[in-house]
Specification:
Elements lengths: L3 H4 L16 H18 L1 H15 L5 E6 L5 H13 L3 E7 L2 H14 L4 E4 L19 E7 L7 H14 E10 L3 H14 L3 H12 L4 H10 L6 E5 L3 E7 L2
Parallel strand pairs: 1-2, 1-4, 2-3, 4-5
Antiparallel strand pairs: 5-7, 6-7
Helix pairs in contact: 3-4, 7-8
Length: 246
């Protein structure tokens, strides 16, 4: 385990999932492991609460929600199922730079019976391209991302938050890890308990080493123009950043 001094600053070591050319079988196994970990962390529920609150304030039209760097689509699918149970009219979409992740997300949505659309796109590209059906991905009410910010350097993290604010009519939400000794220990143990994927075992602790602390991500958000962004700690050693336009 890294020393306390080592965890006092970000250390971004390239993660396996960030590398091109990952074996499709290993990639699918890693995304399945992340699905179990995210289900236990209840990160989708923490994202759904502010979306539901916004939907209650404008009940006459469905909210359009985009998840950037959606991976296997678990967050989008969870939100779609939560919305269906709550009878909230949400339009859920997700994009990822990886074609294989998008294919896995579509298969997961079909398997779980979730109404969600996925398309391939780079979250840091501006503007986002239209999807394969030609629908323009502009005009989202809510733009979210989960477990992606820690993959980025400080400058790209600032760019991403600024782009999220530009794309969102109303609300930006970011859920991610907190860099701390407790977070590192939970990542090391949790990845081994909940997944057999060597990629997950490798990347989980590295993700914590590269993660932001709450004060750090608040500073990045401020530089990105998200004035007044709120940061709240979530179980297990995560934070939820929320920013509302106006």
């Amino acid at each position: 385990m890294p020393s306390l001094n080592a965890l006092s600053r970000r250390e971004r070591i390239p993660e396996v999932m960030d590398q091109p050319g990952i074996d499709p079988v290993d990639h699918a196994r890693a995304l399945a492991g992340l699905r179990r970990i995210n289900a236990l962390s209840r990160c989708s529920a923490s994202l759904f609460a502010p979306i539901a609150a916004l939907a209650a304030r404008q009940p006459d039209q469905p909210l359009r929600v985009l998840d950037l760097a959606c991976g296997g689509g678990d967050t989008v699918i969870d939100l779609a199922l939560l919305a269906r149970r709550s009878k909230l009219p949400l339009i859920l979409e997700g994009c990822d730079i990886s074609a294989s992740a998008v294919a896995i997300a579509r298969a997961n949505a079909e398997r779980r019976g979730a109404a969600a659309r996925f398309f391939q796109a780079d979250a840091l590209a501006d503007p986002l391209p239209s999807g394969p059906d030609g629908a323009a991905p502009a005009g989202y009410d809510v733009v979210i991302t989960s477990l992606f910010l820690h993959h980025l350097g400080d400058h790209d993290a600032e760019v991403l938050l600024a782009l999220m604010a530009r794309r969102a009519r109303h609300l930006v939400l970011v859920n991610d890890l907190i860099r701390s000794p407790l977070g590192y220990g939970l990542a090391w143990a949790g990845t081994r308990l909940l997944s057999r994927s060597w990629i997950v075992h490798t990347d989980g602790p590295l993700s914590v080493q590269g993660a932001f602390q709450p004060a750090e991500v608040a500073a990045v958000a401020d530089r990105a123009g998200l004035s007044g962004a709120r940061i709240q700690r979530c179980w297990p050693e995560r934070y939820l950043l929320s920013w509302s336009r106006g």
